[in-house]
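Hi L.,

You mentioned the student needs an example of a multi-chain input paired with its predicted structure. This one should do, with 750 residues in total across all chains.
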Amino acid sequence: MIEYELLKKEKFTKARLGKIKTNYGVVDTPMFMPVGTKATVKSLTPEELYEANSGMILANTYHLWLRPGEDIVEKAGGLHQFMNYKGPILTDSGGFQVFSLAKNKEKDITEEGVHFKSHIDGKSLFLTPEKSIEIQNKLDSDIAMSFDECPPASASYEYLKNSVNRTLRWAARGKKVHQNKKQALFGIVQGGAYEDLRRYSAEETVKMNFDGYSIGGVANDGESKEDMYKAIEYSTPYLPEDKVRYLMGVGEPIDIIEGVIRGVDIFDCVLPTRIARHGQAFTRYGKINFHNAKFKEDFSSVDETCDCYTCKNYSKAYIRHLITTDEMLGGRLLSIHNIRFLIKLTEELREAIKEDRILEYKGEFLEKYLEEKYE
Amino acid sequence: MIEYELLKKEKFTKARLGKIKTNYGVVDTPMFMPVGTKATVKSLTPEELYEANSGMILANTYHLWLRPGEDIVEKAGGLHQFMNYKGPILTDSGGFQVFSLAKNKEKDITEEGVHFKSHIDGKSLFLTPEKSIEIQNKLDSDIAMSFDECPPASASYEYLKNSVNRTLRWAARGKKVHQNKKQALFGIVQGGAYEDLRRYSAEETVKMNFDGYSIGGVANDGESKEDMYKAIEYSTPYLPEDKVRYLMGVGEPIDIIEGVIRGVDIFDCVLPTRIARHGQAFTRYGKINFHNAKFKEDFSSVDETCDCYTCKNYSKAYIRHLITTDEMLGGRLLSIHNIRFLIKLTEELREAIKEDRILEYKGEFLEKYLEEKYE
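Structure written out for the whole complex:
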């Protein structure tokens, strides 16, 4: 189980400082979780994550259900043992992947669950709220998510209203079969960018008394930043102060800052590792792209203010060489840097909350970040 | 510069125990060098190589000449600085790649050098003995190789005879322009599997007084093991005892043992990292392939006698999962293991030489290795 402790509320915003006690150590919030999709944060070892000061990481139930299968992970002694990660692990419900990855995006959503085809081999699959929880129980993560419907950003008010109700029924069904007593279970707030739906979804989910709450449906294709911020603003006021809040799938530095200001505690995103593999890095002065020829003879580090392994040991010129020649070490070094960048951002946000200066911090950060010194 | 010290000759074979003093520390021989083709041992950091107890590593002149170019490496402060490797580095001459990688293998070998087309973009290139040394001088490796012709395994006696003479003339030309006083320069013995040609090549190369000697032309496509062992046997008797001997491109465990028994000190090969990326690992009981379904629920380590990071922390089942789902960490973990396996093999060979029991060691090793417990 987990225990959330709210340590401080910032004076001028809804930002919160807290900590979560887990079976695998205490982690501080606000926190960014690197994503270990298939029980591996792409290209990195656990030791590299510890060195980046990672707290909790996320693994994807959908992917692990398909390969290697939850029974093998269970036989290995659970996810921590299987992947050798000694910090806390959160698993999602599989819902988001079912809705976004399913082959040809063909799916049949029924009250019972979702029929869809595997993105790997087209095999027919059926995921239900009960099955999602059963898989997560076997994976033995520290925090499990309720199975929710993730409607597209374009969904109508009517569609969303029905969907929110279905997600509530699914949450109740999942909670009923949740067996793993060491594992916390979170409910998920949906409702698009509609104030009344978010409020309704939050209030009804909270009534079920979960161990924590997620805000979902904000990282869909086509979702505007404005709608994302609205979705958060419309949800957090109705979530209890003594439970942790997790904004799913968000990892742009600016969005993390805006989320924290609106009362979010946890974030996750594939962004830092994905852009790394494409040769991009976060820096204090915005994102940079190593395919850019200007880095050919630039022997300075990726970000001179960064304390990560990559920045301590390698030049932009070397990383550009690795990226442009498709050498795996390039994506790996940039993954280390990008993950550390987001984790360090949350460390700085925690300091800013302590000092009641989060709006100043945001101003200082954005002034540099939007300068686009490099592009 | 380097200094080779012969510490002991084994009693019953030609095996030698020695050490090489370099600008970047002392390394023990017999030694296996991991290959860092484009200034990166694929997917690994220098720290991972140190942990595997690597001594010297190899980098490829041809690849670095093309990308990023020797001038950028020079501006970075040389290869050590560029790639952050604090141990000694050997560069090859580029000859082998010109002969094996050039686009469509079209090339025009003249007395002056070799005209060929880049394997990357088809651009016309011209590599000469002088140019090879000039590039290596700028790369600032600890040991440079003379530019040699690498004839195919199918070459006739007549062809090889002419080729050996050309390689001798090229060696003399390269030596003449060698400028980097911190860098050692090796000569290369060629001559296929012909005793008289190997002897002639060795004796004439030794007359030029290089800092060490390589045995080349043994890792070509189509070369038989028998011919490889002959090539070594016909070369080492004519090489001076007080200089180090390097067998180029050899890395099968059995070939390393046979090479050591015939008086070789240094080996290099892409094999451990290449087979790792294809999901294969060396073990005491032969090579294993992680695509094999039998490892699906095998929670033991890759090789229970191994002390590497991978074997200390991960199961076969997890590595199989990574390999079959194309996760980069799989190739990385197996690269760590495979490199450590070959380095540990050379450590054991050094112990066996100390105890004058290298033939017993070979027998014990092969008995297990050829058992094919897994396949």
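You could point out the following to them. Chain B has a mean pLDDT of 96. Chain B touches chain A at residues 38-40, 42-45, 63, 67-68, 72, 75-76, 82-84, 296-297, 299, 309, 313-315, 317-318, 320-322, 324-325, 327-329, 331-332 (CB under 8 Å).

Best wishes,
N.
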